[in-house]
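Handover notes (outgoing to incoming on-call)

Open items:
1. DUF4313 domain-containing protein: sequence verified, structure written out, both below. Nothing else pending on this one.
2. Nothing else urgent.
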Amino acid sequence: MELEIQTMQPGERLYAYRQSTQLEGQTGGIGRLRGDFGRNGREFFTTWEDGHGRYKTGAFRQEFDRVVNTLRQPGGLFSGRSEMARFCHDHADAGFDGNYCREYGFRINTQQYSYLLRCHANPGDYNFYLFAYMTEHLDRHMENAGRGIRFITPDYKELFRIPDGDKVRITWSDGERIEDTCRYIDDCHLELGRGMDGIRHICQLAEQLRQNGGTVIPLRSSLPEQCYNLLPSTGGIILVKKGETGFFKTDLPDMGREENRAFVLETNEKLGVSRAQAEAMLAGSMFGWQTQAADPCSYDEQGRILTPKQRFQKERGEAR
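DUF4313 domain-containing protein structure tokens:
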């Protein structure tokens, strides 16, 4: 059996982890195989966990066995830990930061099914998770989820949108904070956290927040946790933290506005913070994290604000 192993796209990585029952049904999640290569790196220990039972047909079982056996052939991804390490090294663009270590993601498509593989070659842990999906269901959900998750007011005014899988922070009137990952269910429903109890209609959530004096802000994954910036009124160097109102003072000396600006640009660049991100962080701290100005997509590479037409063109380009 010939397999075409493709690099997993960023939007596909969400589906290379265990899904809720609701999402398993929508995405055609059949189940997952997890395994490791034992102490010597040449063994093959696996455990299968069922997903949505109705998709686990006899035809799927036969194909799944062929896929795994093909991957176990000499030199294949499942033939040993060293082979997996070599394959990941040769496909560095497939790497991403997982929960505990650097992981690699790949996708294998057959005529009816898709297999999402998340793996790493570190000893002493599970080395791979292979998730099986009905291709049609999976691709449809990813396409719809590309529209983003909406948050609205009780009178249906849109506050903001976040990409599927991003986090939000809810603050209640007593000061309690809750930070949770959001998953797209459909245009009017989201999953806040895990499980059926987390499924909300966007109108229901808006009303719940109003009645309990709560607020919600996005914690965009496209923003850094913190960055340096200039205080607009004085030109002094400040620290801005994602999701926090206002700024934090620093112990850095005031070198004058222009030298301060040069320091901020250089330091942020070393931290991997772009000018667009820095401008969005400053706007969020000043005007609120719900505002469009707090989204780095609102700026060009130099940190200049985009017109609505330019922003639309930029978002279309990133979607491609």
